[in-house]
Amino acid sequence: MFAAENGLKSDPRLQGISEAIRVVPHFPKQGIMFQDITTLLLDHKAFKDTVDIFVDRYRDMNISVVAGVEARGFMFGPAIALAIGAKFVPLRKPRKLPGEVISEAYELEYGTDCLEIHVGAVQPGERAIVIDDLVATGGTLSAAISLLERVGAEVIECACVIGVPDVKSNLWIMRFIPNDMPFRDSAGSMASHFTSSWSHAKLIIAVKDRSVRMTMRGADFAGKDDT
Ligand SMILES: O=P(O)(O)OC[C@H]1O[C@H](OP(=O)(O)OP(=O)(O)O)[C@H](O)[C@@H]1O
Ligand SMILES: Nc1ncnc2[nH]cnc12
Question: What region holds the Phosphoribosyltransferase domain (predicted)?
């Protein structure tokens, strides 16, 4: 477990980070508890602590690419990239990048969206991490991983500040997540997007007063799906 391995479970920084994230009920629509990281950005200490947690983890992992997901991944990714000596690669929504791109469509709760990367931004064999503010269903991270793998990068981990439970897949996932994993709902929601692209990737969620790393390798989930 990430918390145990890294001593983060009792990391005093996590509470401050948690408290700095505002939760806005019923935004942008009824029933959504919106996790608003703009209040975290206003709090210098909490913002720095958030970046530092990821920097602490990735600075000695020979990462050369920090890929940030538009829009909120852009708020954390560049600071992490600068601190660990990596380049920052924006994964943008459609028709924002002016050069040649490759695209990856993904499903949202309602409808679809798409991420794009500039051809040539990443070289084959580079070691990459993906940064975003939040993971819900995991569809966005799955698309980000696919894009990076299509240009030959090795996606080492994905890191998000917040994990939110995906209500639709809670029942499905609860069976697969060990009881001692403190963020079962969120971690499990990733399983609903389990694809071959996850086979190389790990997920880190630092949220509220707890942190979790889920290893998304096939053996952890595939084969246990008896739905
Ligand atoms: O795990 P998922 O279900 O894919 O959802 C997570 C994504 O949703 C939010 O972005 P959004 O698409 O709302 O775009 P924005 O950052 O431009 O607001 C969030 O910042 C993540 O990127
Ligand atoms: N609960 C939530 N808060 C903020 N952004 C989100 N994106 C998807 N779910 C979200």
Answer: 42-165
Tell me the C-alpha to C-alpha distance, in Å, between residue 57 and each of 6, 31, 53, 129, 183.
Answer: 9, 35, 6, 11, 19
Q: Hey, what's the torsion of the CAs at 100, 115, 156, 190, to 10 degrees?
A: -160
How many C-beta atoms lie closer than 10 Å to residue 72's C-beta? Answer: 20
Helix or strand or coil: residue 212?
strand
For 219, phi and psi rounded to 5 degrees? -65, -25
Does residue 171 carry a pLDDT above 90? Answer: no
Nearest CA to ligand 1 atom 11: 71
Q: Does residue 155 or residue 78 have the better pLDDT? A: 78
Q: How far apart are the CA of 154 and the centre of ligand 1, in A?
A: 23
What ipTM is given for this predicted complex?
Answer: 0.98
* Residue length of the chain: 227
pLDDT for residue 208: 39
Taking the C-alpha atoms of residue 134 and residue 206, their distance in angstroms, rounded to an integer, is 10
- Please say if 107 is a catalytic residue: no
Q: Which of these ranges, 7-21, 114-128, 169-183, has the smallest mean pLDDT?
A: 169-183
In this structure, the residue with its CA closest to atom 14 of ligand 1 is 71
- 127 carries an active-site annotation: no
Q: pTM score, two decimals? A: 0.82
Q: Could you report the per-residue pLDDT of 71-122, keeping only the tens digit for each? A: 999 999 999 999 999 999 999 999 999 999 999 998 876 678 999 999 999 9
For residue 180, give the amino acid letter.
D
157 CA to centre of ligand 1 in angstroms: 18
